Amino acid sequence: GAVVSQHPSRVICKSGTSVKIECRSLDFQATTMFWYRQFPKKSLMLMATSNEGSKATYEQGVEKDKFLINHASLTLSTLTVTSAHPEDSSFYICSARALSPGLAGTEQYFGPGTRLTVT
Amino acid sequence: GQNIDQPTEMTATEGAIVQINCTYQTSGFNGLFWYQQHAGEAPTFLSYNVLDGLEEKGRFSSFLSRSKGYSYLLLKELQMKDSASYLCAVMDSNYQLIWGAGTKLIIKP
Predict the structure, then answer these.
(1) Distance CA A37, CA A58 (A)
(2) Which of these, A6, A48, A69, B43, could form a disulfide with B37 (CB 3.0-4.6 Å)?
(3) With an 8 Å Cβ cutoff, is A74 touching chain B?
(4) For residue B50, which of B20, B68, B24, B29 has the smallest C-alpha distance?
(5) Which residues of A touch B45 (CB under 8 A)?
(6) Can you give the pLDDT at residue A105?
(7) Contact in structure between B74 and B63 (CB atoms under 8 Å)
(8) How far apart are CA B56 and CA A10, in angstroms?
(9) What is the pLDDT of residue A102?
(10) Peptide bond preceding B43 in cis form (omega within 30 of 0)
């Protein structure tokens, strides 16, 4: 089956620093990758949608200058949290959608998530 | 606006059957998904319904009625490992997933 990896799985950083999270599709090409954040006991909140080679589309209320997304290849997208603050502490999850849209839902695969703690 | 409703929490007994309901109002419809999410982990895909009716996959079944904007996930022969949150999501006309808040299922021995 399709596998999506995320790195790191857990990171603790100091307030004011930047953190980069990588999302890779290991055995398929992902034209579209999605970045979500999830607070404890809450549902997934879509932050942005990124398509390979183009700028990410951010959801309303998500600061694009704070959450930098780069989708440089069909297998890699990165999310950089810049000037992190304690309120950015959350569980960040990426998902990747494969090239052929015919079976839309079954082709969105989730990474294992990255737990970010900002002290 | 777009809206997905599902119960916040349900409790069931090991070995029993539980049905988790989901109602939705979205701009367009390209399928409904159920995901399972254990605490601290990413969601894992359970089922996808785009046509009306029941889809059975082992102990789990998912039902869809597009005219009623309604779906349910049926879990049979419950096991302790089924304790998790179950997320209902609808793909809208733009092929974006709209997520429900999730139903926390607690299984008791």
Answers:
(1) 13
(2) B43
(3) no
(4) B29
(5) 105-106, 108-110
(6) 47
(7) yes
(8) 36
(9) 52
(10) no
Task: Give me the residue label for tokens 């039902």.
Answer: B63
Task: Pick the range with the lowest mean pLDDT from A55-64, A80-89, A90-99, B69-78.
Answer: A90-99
Alpha-carbon distances, residue B102 vs A40, B8, B19, B79, B95 (angstroms): 12, 6, 14, 19, 20
Mutate to test the interface with B, among A4, A33, A108 (most CBs of B within 10 A): A108
Chain A contact for B26 (CB, 8 A cutoff): no
Whether A69 contacts A59, CB under 8 Å: no
- From chain A, pick out residues whose CB is under 8 angstroms from the CB of B91: 104-105
% of chain A surpassing 90 pLDDT: 64
Q: Does B42 touch chain A (CB under 8 A)?
A: yes
